[in-house]
Amino acid sequence: MTPTISDDRIAAIEARRDELQAALSSGELATDRLVALSKEYAEIEPVADAARELRRLRAERLVLDGMSAESDLELREMAAEELQDILEKLPLAERDLALKLLPKDAADERAAMLEIRAGTGGDEAALFAGDLFRMYQRYAEERGWRVEVISASAADVGGYKEVVASVTGQGVFARLKFESGVHRVQRVPATESGGRIHTSAATVAVLPEAEDVDVQINDNDLRIDVYRSSGPGGQSVNTTDSAVRITHLPSGLVVIQQDEKSQHKNKAKALKVLRTRLYELERSRLADERSGARKAMVGSGDRSERIRTYNFPQGRVTDHRINLTLHRLPEILEGAMDELIGALISEDEAARLGALGE
Description:
3-stranded antiparallel β-sheet, 11 strands, 358 residues
């Protein structure tokens, strides 16, 4: 249910927009103040436009309500027809403004760290992890995002035991944040001669990438070990101590990076992953402190939560959180995820609007 927004609040929004417009037009602002007010104006302008449209519709409704009491039949009929149009537009305008007033997730515009790990199912799980990573790569390509592999542990049969990648572009975290959880696949493995359907799983985690200013890491809190990289089966693939293992002593988090031949590059990538995971720990702590914050979301981001099933025999994808089934499995695996992701975002918005109205 969309909460009712008072006329006083609408007036306050429009007044603030006018104040900012006047201040920015004065030409008397210091650079830092100009930057701050320009940013606030860019944020409030679409909200004020939605508020103005809602105020206009409400005013027209009052006028038309008055006209419906006129003695002139033709005037009453005309008013009734126009009133019907206004009554259809009003709920949409109310919802549009309410959505624009919802608190923004500060991380929505950030890049994201995408982590995919094979779960139950052995070789088939690794192949599925590879399919998921390819799906996200294709989706990123469609949206003009860039995907950079941070680390990858390939499986002997193909796919990945684990792959970690950085995804950069506009609004990455906002569109990928509901992908965290357990993804399950039901299909006949290529190695299965009997044609039996197997169920395997892979775990996906999507974390907003941290910037240097978000997480201050004290060098004294780190234990850094270096050693020689090794490939499948333990054979040495590098004759220098280039692999890096960083342990963050206060949290116990451990990050290992060995994909690069340079110890310096491995250390930089490991610190990037560590900073992102520490940032997510703090975000999770703050979310838990906010009453009902996680209940109002489509998914908590809990990696143990089974969120989606990809059923190959039936060609369907089912998202269990919103009870949505799409019979477009091949297209979705090729990156056509907008319908699925859009439904998750809409459900989250509806849940948060409902929470505001309680």
